Amino acid sequence: MRTTVRAQLSLMMFLEFFVWGAWYSAIAVYMSANGMKNLTHWPFTGNAIAAIVAPFFVGLIADRYFATQKVLGTLHILGALFMFITPSLTHNPVLFILALLAYNICYMPTMSLANTLSFHQMTQQEKQFPAIRVFGTIGWIAAGLTVSFVLVSFAGQNIQPEATPLPLYLTAGGSLLLGVYSFFLPHTPPPAAGKKVTARAIIGIDAFKRLGNRSFYVFLVSSLLICIPLAVYYNYTQLFLENSGFKNIAATQTIGQASEMIFMLLMPFFFRKLGVKWMLAVGMMAWVVRYGLFASAAPESITWMILAGIALHGICYDFFFVTGQIYMDKKASPEIRGQAQGLMILITYGVGMLIGTQIAGELYNRFLTDRASLSLLDWQHFWWIPASFAGGVLLFFTVAFNEKIK
User: Fold this and answer.
1) Domain end call among 197, 225, 240
2) DSSP assignment of 101-165, as one string?
3) Which among 10, 171, 278, 370 counts the fewest CB atoms within 10 Å?
4) For residue range 235-264, what is the model confidence (pLDDT) as tens digits?
């Protein structure tokens, strides 16, 4: 791959995750500060709905009829428009949430489109892709730092930037920039042009049948279930940090992405030592420990415990989700690899997160009742629930999963 192409793709990945991280790590604080404290789970629900819709759009339309870079650019420009008008709808929660849903429906397909565009330019995907994908994680970190330390000068005295519409406007601006930039990326013809693509293939039914055995089904069920406590983390860590006295909320959460980068580099070593089953088990155990740390830290707002819980994100994400993707790839034959990966995304980021966000919202609102925020003692009881749930999923998985894959 030419150096100029590598640089183009790296910047694309940086911007792709910058625009996601800019709003995702601040939206709950913004909604809570603007009279929508009971509805903070709905943007994440919209994200999950979009993850279910995205494979159909990509597989049935984008991959068959249009050059990838043009679809990528068009969707980001449309997304910029939806995100730009979203803050003006704050007075109407229904319209506000629908505008965020429209943005997510534009954004979520771009993740697979960005991967498709990258792989089309590569000759050694397993070596070249990680070096480019890591710029996405850097972009997410840059977004959090920008929200907390750059936007603060525009937010006004003693006002958290996360509580203002500035992160949403930052997302809109980044989306517009990436949308225009996408049209100048290397030409990537539609990969499925002239091929028959069915909804059955996109959902992954063929892969589900061909890969099916007891341990495989245990893995899929565990993947879906672990996304329920995952949704609690994404939905409510922002508000927990705010109630615990943290000021730079978006920046604080980037500790998790920094950890993700480190453990991504260490994964080959752990794979040799642990194998697939225990990599997955360690990933689930990290969720139990993370929520246990949050619960133990809550009454006294013990900073090191909260930061340690956030730092566990590298193990939580890499050891379970990245290992899961590798597990699917090892089991699948070349002709169904795409279906297998699509099946996992549908089950986790789609169905699992959709269920998880609704359960998380119901749980939070039961603790909140008619108050402005949870007390620190409430947060302690709150976090023990996803910790216990994740522990149950871990127990189920370790007992029921017996497949030997190295």
Assistant:
1) 197
2) HHHHHHHHHHHHHHHHHHHHT-S-HHHHHHHHHHHHHHHHHHHHHIIIIITHHHH-TT--GGGSS
3) 370
4) 899 999 999 999 889 899 999 989 988 888
